[in-house]
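User: Sequence recovery, please. Input:
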């Protein structure tokens, strides 16, 4: 009888699930939580909750359209349904992996199974990520300019200021590293070759020479595609505009929840959009799937003065729409991606055997 193997990954996943369940239970069952709200005489305008859900769906739709624009230009057979699969796959794996690191690798697997060259698919996803980071950083800067008084008036002004500074630093650092990697062929080749050599030492990678030839080919495709994209404003400009709409749709979710829960709401959408930008900036650097714990703390810190006694309910509803709901909605694509990744690996092994 073999002893059951308990990996660190399994322990980590169990801890994250436990954290999510515990936090959700707290915001539901504790005093002034969602359970109290549902059993109180306070009226909830559920139509605004539906609008909040629709706003989150718009975020996901924009994600799909941007991917479609980036890939369709070179691969005419890439359908909108293919883009839906790639987008929702990325959203699922980003949601369940630390710092959203699992989304793009699984998207590359899926694109490869759709007969889209690895170098090209990787290049376009990196370009999309750069647009995403640039738009997000720009919105964050505007948010600080428009609503920095909210931080100054907070009881934890020092802590929030430090967290926001670290958030900005992490965003700039990630953007800089991606730019450096994307436009420096020598650097990217050295980094990839280093990992290939290390993996070959542990017998994980076999036929290192064949791998090197394939890496060179894919890197050429990757860097040529990077250079080519900036000659095509008809792709970049719509991508920037749609990504901006994507973020505004996501940042409006708390505003619609605010209209649903707070009678005689007086705060405008700009206030809540900038507050959500602060939450996103602060929690984005937390290396836990979904920034669990940090996201809820950030939401209560920035939205506390707005939601009054409905803060716990607002936090749980917001988290359900923006995170838990996304995970459940995109979960079926985990199975699709698993099959596709196996096919991609098999095809890659077949290609290597031909090279030999």
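Assistant: Recovered sequence (356 residues):
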């Amino acid at each position: 009888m073999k002893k059951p193997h308990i990996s660190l990954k399994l322990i980590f996943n169990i801890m994250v699930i436990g954290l999510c369940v515990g936090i959700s239970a707290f915001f539901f069952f504790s005093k002034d939580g969602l359970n109290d709200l549902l059993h109180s005489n306070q009226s909830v305008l559920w139509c605004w909750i539906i609008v909040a859900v629709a706003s989150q769906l718009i975020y996901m739709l924009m994600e799909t359209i941007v991917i479609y624009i980036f890939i369709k230009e070179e691969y005419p057979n890439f359908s909108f349904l293919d883009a839906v699969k790639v987008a929702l796959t990325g959203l699922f794996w980003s949601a369940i992996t630390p710092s959203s690191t699992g989304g793009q690798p699984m998207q590359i697997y899926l694109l490869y199974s759709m007969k889209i060259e690895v170098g090209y698919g990787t290049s376009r996803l990196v370009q999309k990520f750069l647009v995403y980071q640039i738009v997000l950083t720009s919105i964050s800067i505007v948010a600080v300019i428009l609503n920095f008084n909210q931080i100054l008036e907070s009881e934890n002004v020092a802590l929030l200021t430090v967290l926001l500074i670290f958030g900005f630093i992490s965003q700039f650092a990630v953007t800089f590293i991606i730019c450096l990697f994307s436009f420096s062929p020598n650097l990217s080749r050295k980094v990839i070759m280093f990992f290939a050599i290390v993996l070959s030492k542990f017998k994980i990678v076999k036929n290192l020479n064949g791998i090197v030839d394939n890496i060179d080919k894919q890197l050429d495709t990757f860097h040529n595609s990077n250079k080519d994209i900036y000659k095509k404003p008809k792709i970049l400009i719509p991508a920037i505009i749609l990504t901006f709409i994507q973020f505004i749709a996501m940042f409006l979710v708390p505003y619609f929840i605010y209209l649903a829960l707070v009678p005689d709401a007086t705060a405008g959408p700009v206030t809540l959009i900038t507050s959500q930008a602060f939450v996103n900036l602060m929690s984005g650097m937390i290396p836990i799937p979904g920034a669990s714990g940090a996201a809820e703390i950030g939401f209560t810190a920035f939205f506390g003065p707005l939601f009054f006694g409905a803060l716990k309910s607002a936090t749980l509803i917001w988290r359900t729409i923006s995170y838990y709901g996304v995970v459940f909605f995109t979960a079926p694509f985990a199975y699709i991606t698993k099959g596709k990744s196996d096919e991609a690996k098999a095809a890659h092994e077949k290609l290597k055997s031909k090279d030999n």
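The CA atoms of residues 181 and 212 lie 18 Å apart.
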